[in-house]
What does this fold into?
Amino acid sequence: MKLAAIKGQNRVIDALKRSISVNRVAHAYLFEGPDGCGRRSAALALIQALFCKEPVGGDACNRCSSCCKLVSGNHPDLHQLQPLPDKRDITIEQVRELQQILSLRPFESSRKGCIIEPAERMNEKSANAMLKTLEEPPGDAIIILLANQSDRLLSTIRSRCQHLRFSTLGTDVVTGILLEKGFEQARAAKLASLSEGSMKRAISLDGESDLADREKLLSLLTNLSSVRIGSIFDQSESLASGREEALQSFKLIISLLRDMMIIRSSGCTDISNSFLYQELADEAARFTQSSILDLLELAIAVRNAVQGNANSKLAIEHFMIGYAGFRKGV
Ligand SMILES: [Zn+2]
It folds into this structure.
């Protein structure tokens, strides 16, 4: 991937391109930001640009043998350091092994590259063992640390890296990337609105029936009526066939109520379920601000009770009766 193809992180990408153009690329970088915002893609793109045999304007050509190997994940000079599958931490043994590899001559490129992810998982021993390597990587190697929260790293690690902060992606950026990946417009917009600025989350939501569930739940709530109490009992059955289903329903209900709260108090459109904005705004108008807050508190309390093993069906009924009671105009 080219640096120019990284979306939604212009400030960081411009800084990297500038460093390449004046030949002042750092030996060690710390890319900090939330999951799914492009840190890893940017790290790979930077290494690709540096390894490329025919770079164009400082960026990778995406065609030479080096670029092809990096894109297919087969470049012998790119190394990755991450916790082993059965381990919590990146161990000091792994760090020593990496140091050994970095001390050897590169196979194809003029230098080696290494991505450490997540850098927070280096324990104190392994982090301390890494310090000298970060300060003077052998053979001109470039080392890129990826972290969610840099304050969880040793200050001595942070101070040896050039620190670049990545931001959460805008909804429009996530939509654009999903469209490029071949998603249909409506689906892309829905996934983006729920992604909280994370491509990782957008893609993982795609595998869930979560979106349709949110829509269905809201429609169910908007059809609740305190005068047709029988319908509440029917609906509760469908939402609480088991404890896990009830917890999932409460997770979605809490998310919908939070959005109603935001809309009712500020009219703000920046909500989690923005694809349901109009429906949520219409529904929020049937409540006072304080009754939405009461319902949110009720939903959280009832969810906690289900987590503590209360009867799921009774819990859902309890919430729905409360909801229907607060709802105006039915
Ligand atoms: Zn190339």
